[in-house]
Design a protein that fits this description.
Two copies of one chain form a homodimer. Chain A is mainly alpha-helical and about 130 residues long. Chain A has two domains: about 70 residues, Arc Repressor Mutant, subunit A (Orthogonal Bundle); about 35 residues. Chain A has six helices and two strands. In chain A, helix 1 packs across helix 3 and helix 2 crosses helix 3. Chain A is elongated and about 55 Å long. The two termini of chain A are about 20 Å apart. Chains A and B meet through helix 4, helix 5 and helix 6 of A and helix 4, helix 5 and helix 6 of B. The first copy, chain A, binds a DNA duplex (30 and 30 nucleotides) through helix 1 and helix 3.
DNA sequence: GAACTGTACTATGTGTGTTAGTACAGTTGT
DNA sequence: ACAACTGTACTAACACACATAGTACAGTTC
């Protein structure tokens, strides 16, 4: 269910955070669902437990999950809402990316048609 | 002309590379123009000469500049063309970013109107 | 020859990512 | 009660990237 690219220059804990966010958004993990335990996931991915916990701690601090000592880590009911808010705050960064591509000679229509294509792909896979 | 954010988590040499690319794209630096010398720029930015050279070496390896020992570092005639090619290769990455925002509930129309706005800003500033 | 240019090299300090090992408190199921 | 699980906290060590410091050499410009 969760895979990690050990050769990536992106930190493992960072990849894990993004993966879990993605699984929450795609409703694979729903509110109050039980996440894999730190130890089991560390065995499954052949990664140190501390690295897994670092990701879990981050998710918990971001309000996306809540932890119960002895029971486990669960998806927060407000997780999807929070992820939506986070995405809105990334719009300026997205704009800077787009602006850079426009400056480099990429056509605005090309970017917009790409977005249309991605959007229709998304809708058809729901 | 060139500024650096020392507090940014982004490496200085990386910021410098992006700045110079930007200046080439905006025709502040044209083909065969003379870039600031390693030492003068290191003084101007209060940054170690090695850090400047790291950026210059990268630009040279990317074909954006060429160096002449004893004379200096100059903008390659093919620089803008290369930057255009680089931008095309970044489209998948841009698409992944857009897809993530769409998955998070951002509307496709909102992204497209953002691109339109950036494009018209760009055209009016030429 | 003096003053500039790019380039190369070693050494050092700092921060981050990762692994390793240990320990403790709470929950679950037998 | 006990064993096996859960999250959490902590120290130690290693590797790597970024940046700084200092020195050196070859080529150019005036």
């Amino acid at each position: 269910m969760i895979t990690i690219d050990l050769m990536s220059r992106k930190p493992i804990y960072d990849q894990l955070i993004e993966k879990i966010k993605q699984l929450i958004l795609s409703d694979v993990f729903s509110a109050n669902d039980h996440l894999p335990s730190v130890r089991s996931l560390s065995c499954q991915l052949s990664v140190n437990p501390n690295t897994i916990q670092k990701a879990y701690t981050h998710l918990c601090n971001a309000g996306l999950t809540y932890s119960v000592a002895g029971k486990g880590c669960f998806v927060s009911p407000q997780a999807k809402e929070i992820l939506g808010q986070d995405a809105k705050q990334e719009l300026p960064q997205f704009g800077a990316f787009a602006r850079r591509l426009l400056d480099s000679g990429i056509d605005a229509e090309q970017l917009k048609s790409l977005i249309d294509q991605l959007d229709s792909e998304r809708r058809s896979s729901l």
